[in-house]
Amino acid sequence: MQKNNPFHFEYSYVSLPDTFYSFVKPELFPKPELVLLNKTLCNQLDVVVENEEDLLNALLIKQTENETTSFAQAYAGHQFGHFTKLGDGRAIIIGEHTTKRNQRFDIQLKGSGRTPYSRGGDGKATLRAMLREYLISEAMHYLNIPSSRSLSVIKTGQPVYRETLQEGAAVVRVMESHIRVGTFEYAARFGKPEDVKTLVNYTIKRLYPELLDDENLAVSLLRKVMQNQIDLVADWMRVGFIHGVMNTDNTSISGETFDYGPCAFMNSYHPDTVYSSIDHQSRYAFGNQPKIIKWNLCRFAEALLPIIHENKEKSLALAQITIDEFDAIWEKKYYGTMLNKIGFATNNSLYYELVDELLEVMKKGKIDYTNTFNDLSKVLISEENTNKNTEFSDWIKNWKHIIRQSIGAEKAIKIMGAVNPITIPRNHLLENALDEAVNGNMKVFERLLDVITKPYELQDGIDDFLKPSASNFEKYYQTFCGT
Predict the structure, then answer these.
(1) Mean pLDDT of 155-168
(2) The pTM is what?
(3) Counting beta carbons within 10 angstroms of the beta carbon of residue 332, is it exposed (0 to 12), middle (13 to 18) or buried (19 or more)?
(4) What is the domain partition of the chain in residue ranges?
(5) Residues 120, 121, 122, CA angle at the centre, nearest 5°?
(6) Up-side HSE of residue 325: CA atoms within 13 Å toward CB?
(7) In this structure, how many other beta carbons lie within 10 angstroms of the beta carbon of residue 346?
């Protein structure tokens, strides 16, 4: 390993059977150029970058001409409900970086060229798509939502052929783990009988060591992942985020949001909102996300069935008992989250109807999701409701009365301020920033990035960042997977 490598790499994942991965080198780009470096994340990871060349050498592993330590992961997944054998087609894990606090993170290079799992693809990525992932993953992090992070974006110096000829790039993605539901589906469908057990043991040891002494590790892992995914999707709903491609291979066992392809943030509220160009049946619409994560967890449970219990009927019964807990856990988590958004500290089912009524009013009136919840604090302070919608005014009147009788305006405002973002990466602002960036002007992108890293602060000069896009933009706006 080179002298000035800023990473401390280990490779625990390759202790698994080799069916789970393939050793592969990233393509050596002719003229790599660092576009963005996340210095805050570097500090958090104890990664000291003394110069650009050391970082590029470490990521592109030019120092390992005779030995390949980087690898692509094999996995499967249900994509839009259909099972497919997959794998990292354009991503390579350079290594597992360990910090001074003994935290372990995958350092993955995405857009680094073909792998054994590329399935006819070129394994590359566009500058636009990688800048998009960088900004949205950072936005999610600062919204206090578990997410992959982006350490850097690197221009490859190579053109990429998509609808048009575009500039190539790679993003350095950081995650606690890239193990996904699809990894377990792969083990169950294509591995040996003992591979699922081996994967469960490795996953628990790496991610959830507190479960190691539990009687049934598979059931404990299922329950843990279910809780984490419920918490995650409730957070998505809190900020109006639509993942857009909730396939099982994009459902992380660690509970992190990742794969920011056709994702977007909702403007005017409607549960049927879809932006993804490939989601023709609205499978992954905003309001469907809870149902889909439950469906994905059922696929996870199916993959675990061989090791839950040696008796098939007993195994199925134990898995079903766990999955049957989903609805009650989801309802409590979701309404607890939404009650926080309207100022309540406790999860009182008596107030669930208030949430439902507000969302119905917002849907009918096509009212902006982010601004509506953010403005509730102003309504409590100023007594003024600028929205002339009669149903909304009636709801506000009833809500204010309940708030004052229960928790009080001051406490309610504090609760709402912690969970209702003032700024999000509005779709039209993001697209404009990307347009400018790929044409050589990074200033607009950097300004948007700066604003979204302080989403709960009322910053100066951000009026334009608070406005929803024009209705025509929303009507025709589509997002794409970026492959």
Answers:
(1) 90
(2) 0.96
(3) middle
(4) 9-175, 179-426+468-483, 427-467
(5) 125
(6) 15
(7) 10
- pLDDT for the residue numbered 415: 97
> Which of 54, 1, 35, 44 is CA-nearest to residue 132?
35
From the list 40, 72, 258, 31, the residue with the least C-alpha distance to 152 is: 40
Across 266-290, average pLDDT: 96
What are the catalytic residues?
249
Any bridge partners for residue 76, and if so which?
A: 85
Measured distance CA(34)–CA(55) in Å, rounded: 9
**Whole-angstrom Cα distance, residue 447 to residue 6?**
28
Residue-wise pLDDT for 176-229, tens only, equals: 999 999 999 999 999 988 999 999 999 999 999 999 999 999 999 999 999 999
pLDDT in tens, 409-422: 999 999 999 999 99
Distances in whole angstroms, Cα of residue 319 to Cα of each of 304, 422, 483: 8, 41, 35
